[in-house]
């Protein structure tokens, strides 16, 4: 192995191999800005705060059995940052169309797997479309990386850095690497034994708790495997690989908080209800029978501490399957069911189970991962992300960030991605839909707001308090 090649982790390799023509494994984002910015200033910002992560200068080398990161000897920022203009009115419809086209187009695997497009004429301001392959890092990490490009004020102090930082590579023989692994494994085993003995001495019931946790993990693994496939609806169709993107006008975060508080729930519960109600309204508008047992969405569950700085990239999250009770028509009762489903998941090990499965699939043959992916993707109708963002407005290269949106990719046969992102006192929500699916993304965005308003009116009218007392 070349000393410049770094082995890719099994988790990251699992996401690399999920890439298909129908579902490119890209995390996509749009940053809408209130005015145009200098492309040179944007480049300087990327050089200082983005390219400090060596991964964004490395391309993927895949030899079939293993995958590696390797420095791109011909790396140049201009291969990844493109300045373009929107056609026609340069409005939201044109930006959504461009975002849909880019969302449908795979990245160039001959280069580092990321790309940005700077649009210099969007609705009197500008916008940046970002695409980064999922094998580089998970969505929460990449959102934090992107937000690290921004400042709290329009005029930060930037320092130019070299575009090719020197990276010191340590050359070791195969024997040395084997010995290092053996020593590391011995140390790890010793530490685990020491911690186990310490825990037993401190708390004699620790082995019982450990066994109980192991039983819980096994139970959740069996339950995940035996979960029925999703009901046949127009949300589950063979995919074309062409995507449509849309986003709605943001909700006021204080209104969402007030609604959740009146119902004795969380902001997340209220937003999951809004998603449930939006899909409920979609079925009604299309005159499609509503599934009697609800539908499920796959929700990424972060396993990385949020209070620690992002020093290394990579994927550190599991997936949980959340049931949305679209069959429950009453807003308050539907909210209660969403709340109960989420509380049950919080007590489960499903996120850890799916993370371990991805690690296992990344180490095994490609056909094993494909079959497992097909099995799991048949148990969800959409991917839903809900990421908390900054509480105050931010600035990118001197321009105010007015509306950020991010989408994670859908895997296997899933063709819908729904994103919720809080920013500066607002809740942003958007959707990406494969064009083969009979669902209008603009209508679903309108349904999202209508659904939340129905819940808010019912909660603030006093019905929520009555139901809470009754429960």
Automatic annotation (TrEMBL):
Record's catalysed reaction(s): an acyl-CoA + a 1,2-diacyl-sn-glycerol = a triacyl-sn-glycerol + CoA
A GO biological-process term: triglyceride biosynthetic process
GO MF assignments: diacylglycerol O-acyltransferase activity
Keyword Transmembrane helix: no
EC numbers, comma separated: 2.3.1.20
A single cellular component GO annotation: plasma membrane
Pathway(s) it belongs to: Glycerolipid metabolism; triacylglycerol biosynthesis; Lipid metabolism
Domain of life, source organism: Bacteria
Record keywords: Acyltransferase, Glycerol metabolism, Lipid biosynthesis, Lipid metabolism, Transferase
Residue intervals of the O-acyltransferase WSD1 C-terminal domain: 314-455
Top EC group: transferase
Acyltransferase as UniProt keyword: yes
UniProt similarity note: Belongs to the long-chain O-acyltransferase family.
Name recorded for this polypeptide: diacylglycerol O-acyltransferase
